[in-house]
Amino acid sequence: MRKMTTLLLSGLCAGIISYGTAMAEENDALTFNPSPDAPEHTMTFPDGSTVTYRAYENLYYVTDVVDSVYQSLNVYVPEVAYTNNDQTPVFLKTHVGGYMAAKATQPSSTDASGRALAEGYVVVIPGSRGANSKITTASGEEVFTGRAPNGLVDLKAAIRYLRYNKGRIPGDMEKIITDGTSAGGAMSSLLGATGNHPVYEPYLDTLGAAKERDDIFAAVCYCPITDLEHADMAYEWLYNVTNATTRGLTPEQIRISNELAALYPVYLNSLGLKKPDGTLLTDANYTDYLKSFLIRSAQRAKNAGADMPENAGITMNTGFRGSPGEFVVDIDLETYLNYVVTTQPLKTPPAFDALDVLAPKATPENNVFGDETGSSVNFTDFSLRKATKDFSATIDPALQERVYSMNPMYFIGNEKSTTTPNWYIRHGARDRDTGFQVSVNLYTRLINQGYNVNFDLAWNRGHMGDYNLDDLFSWIRKVVVQEGN
Ligand code: DHB
Question: What is the Å distance from ligand 1's center to 253 Cα?
C-alpha cells in the first residue's frame, strides 16, 4: 500500500518520483525504477482531442537479456491513471507481424494504443524476438534468437514483469488486455489461452523472467494466423472451389490442393466442436455454420448502410414490387469465395508449410520454426514428406513440441493453463491470409468451454487490425465493469 501511495503522489508531483527506501528490499534488476524526469508527452488525435501521458521506456523485462534490441518494453501512463491506478486496465499492444521480431515502440494516435491512452488506460508496448532477430556472439557466430516459441515467451516474460511491479507501475495487473494483429493476433490468442502453462517454464527460467503468473484478463485478436499445422488443409478445403476459376492454379498445384483438402475433415471432426445450440460440428454441416457468420456480418453492414457487392453471391429478400429488400437471406459460399479471390489473390498451396513442396520458397512459418542457425524447416508431416520424398517421414518430436506450444487450440481450458475469460476476435470477411475456419474454430472452442467471446467475421475487411475502435473499447469497458461487480 505504501508503494501505491508513493507512486500516486509522485504522479501528482509532476513526475518527481522518489520512492525513498520503501522498495529497497526489492531493488533487483526487474524492479521498475522510474527515472525521476520521465518525459511528459501529449498525443493529438485526428479529431483534435489530446491526451497527456508520461513515458517510461527501454525497461528490460528479463534479467538474462539475450537480445537487447527486442527484450524490453515501454510503459505509458496517462495523467488520470496516476489517481486511480489500482483500477486502471493495462493495455498491452504487440506489434508482432509475420512472426518477425517487434520493437518496443511509442503509442500511436491511429491504432488501439493511442485510443487506450485516451480511455485513461496504462499502455504497454513490449518488444519481442522473432524469426528474423539475430545476434553475433563473441566468437563471431550468428545466432537467431527468436525461433518459436521465443517470441511468445518474451511476451509472457513482459506480462510477468508487469505483475512483478504491481503497485510500482500504475495499473491493475489483474486487468491486462493484450492486442495484436495477424501473427500478433496469434500471439494475443496464445497469451489468452496458455496462461501459466508449464510448457514455457524452462524458457522463462533461462531468461530470468520474474517468478509471477502470466495469465491475462482479456485477449484482443485481429485475424490471428494460428493453428499453423492445420492451416494448409483448412485453406485448401475452403478455397478448393476456386482452384479452376478465379484462383487459376496449375495442375500440379491443384493436386496438392486436393490432397490437403481431403485431410481437413478428419482434423475438423476430431475437434468435437459444437454449435451454440449443441449440434456437433462436422465437415457435413460446417459450410452452413460458416455461412451463418457471413450472413450475420453482411446483415449488420447492410443495416449500417453498406452496399452489398453484386458478385458476392448474396441473396436479399424481395422488397416492394420486386425490388431488393432489406434482409440477407442467403450467401452462396462458392460465389462468395470466388468474390474474395477477385479482391486479392490467394496464397498458393501449401499456403503455410510451403518449403520445398512445389518450390524452395520459405514462408514466415517455415522460418519461425527453424533453429538458431537460421534454418527454415517443414513443420507438418504432409509437407515434410513431399519435400523429402520420404513418405513415412515425421516431424521430429522436439519440433512437434514447439509447434504444439504455438497453437492456442490445445491450451483452451487445459487443466494446466489459466485461459483468459474474455475474448474479442475479429477476422475480416475477405481476409485471405488464412482460412476463416481458423478464427471460427478458435471462437467455437472457446464458447464450448464457457468463455466470453465477442466474435465477428468483419464485413468487407481484409487482413488488418485495430479497426472499429469504438466497438472494441465499449466491449473492453463492459468486461472491465462486469469483472468489477
Ligand atoms: C502474417 C501474415 C501471413 O499471411 C502469415 O502467414 C503470417 C503472418 C502477418 O501479417 O503477421
Answer: 21
* Residues 6 or more apart whose Cβ sits within 8 Å of residue 458: 297, 426, 427, 428, 429, 467, 468
What is the per-residue pLDDT across 132-153, written as a single tens digit (0 to 9) for each? 999 999 999 999 999 999 999 9
Sequence-ordered list of residues with C-beta below 8 angstroms from that of 189, at least 6 positions apart, any chain: 219, 221, 224, 226, 408, 425, 442
> Mutation test of ligand 1: which of 182, 363, 365 has the most ligand atoms closer than 8 Å to its C-beta?
182
CA 299 to chain centre: 26
CA of 225 to the centre of ligand 1 (A): 6
**Comparing C-alpha atoms, which of 271, 300, 306, 283 is closest to residue 410?**
271
- pLDDT tens, position by position, 239-290: 999 999 999 999 999 999 999 999 999 999 999 999 999 999 999 999 999 9
Strands (E), 418-475: 422-428, 452-458
Total count of residues recorded for the chain: 485
Partner residues linked to 134 by β-bridges: 144
Q: Pocket of ligand 1, candidates 189, 366, 367, 433: which has the most ligand atoms within 8 Å of its Cβ, to mutate?
A: 433
